[in-house]
């Protein structure tokens, strides 16, 4: 990949889909100096463009792509898991979006790219670099697995944090205070994981082999928040596996 390759300034892009990501992408590409149409709603007329970028639900991609073909030279989607059956390439920014981000939100984040042909993949790479992102290739066969990794790192982490907030509330710590208190622990854990990986970074009673404390934790959860016991058991089992790896090192 050519680290200096970006889209030509005269490139025109039509953003299809007026959701959170569509609006942020339109702002970022305009800030990069490109001509951007949209974000357009799916029933809007699509003007002639070099690239139609579909920011629509995965189930809507086939219909949106068929409509965009009439106006765009290349059609792409931003889905992480959907194949390229209906488009020429895909770019999936590896980030979570609320729709209120500034145009520089893409700077230095990863962007998974795939393309039907080398030329399509090159266009996807150029689009990522125009946004300031770092493109990396994911082949079509592994797109769903890659997207599952992203869900574990973002969506499922929020599921665990919601459980932590519930348990803190049961211990008498209100939600906003619990988030303030737990956030530094979370950030240090993520920093350690980024530097050293999960095995080297694991601490706590399971890592120490302190099963009595683990049992007390489970008993407390069963008493105050029994609906969280299955989640605790599943996470404890997975964490025991990491601990065994740590002990074997």
Automatic annotation (TrEMBL):
Coiled-coil intervals, chain numbering: none
Pfam families named among the record's database cross-references: DUF2520
Domain DUF2520: 112-238
Name of the molecule in the record: DUF2520 domain-containing protein
Lineage, opening ranks: Bacteria, Bacillati, Actinomycetota, Actinomycetes, Micrococcales
């Amino acid at each position: 990949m050519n680290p200096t390759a970006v889209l030509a300034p005269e490139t025109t892009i039509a953003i299809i889909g007026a959701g959170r990501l569509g609006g942020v992408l339109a702002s970022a590409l305009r800030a990069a100096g490109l001509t951007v149409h949209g974000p357009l709603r799916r029933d809007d007329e699509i003007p002639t463009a070099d690239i139609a970028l579909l920011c629509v639900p995965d189930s809507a991609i086939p219909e949106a792509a068929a409509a965009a073909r009439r106006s765009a030279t290349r059609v792409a989607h931003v889905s992480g898991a959907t194949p390229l059956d209906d488009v020429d390439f895909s770019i999936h920014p590896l980030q979570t979006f609320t729709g209120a981000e500034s145009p520089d939100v893409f700077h230095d984040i990863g962007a998974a790219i795939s393309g039907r042909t080398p030329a399509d993949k090159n266009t996807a790479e150029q689009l990522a670099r125009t946004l300031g992102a770092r493109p990396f290739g994911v082949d079509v066969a592994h797109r769903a697995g890659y997207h599952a990794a992203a869900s574990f790192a973002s969506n499922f982490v929020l599921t665990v944090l919601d459980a932590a907030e519930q348990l803190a509330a049961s211990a008498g710590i209100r939600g906003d205070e619990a988030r303030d208190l737990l956030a530094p622990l979370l950030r240090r854990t993520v920093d350690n994981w980024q530097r050293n990986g999960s095995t080297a970074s694991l601490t706590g009673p399971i890592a120490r082999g302190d099963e009595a404390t683990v049992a007390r934790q489970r008993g407390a959860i069963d008493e105050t928040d029994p609906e969280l016991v299955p989640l605790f058991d599943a996470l404890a089992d997975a964490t025991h596996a990491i601990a065994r790896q740590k002990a074997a090192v």
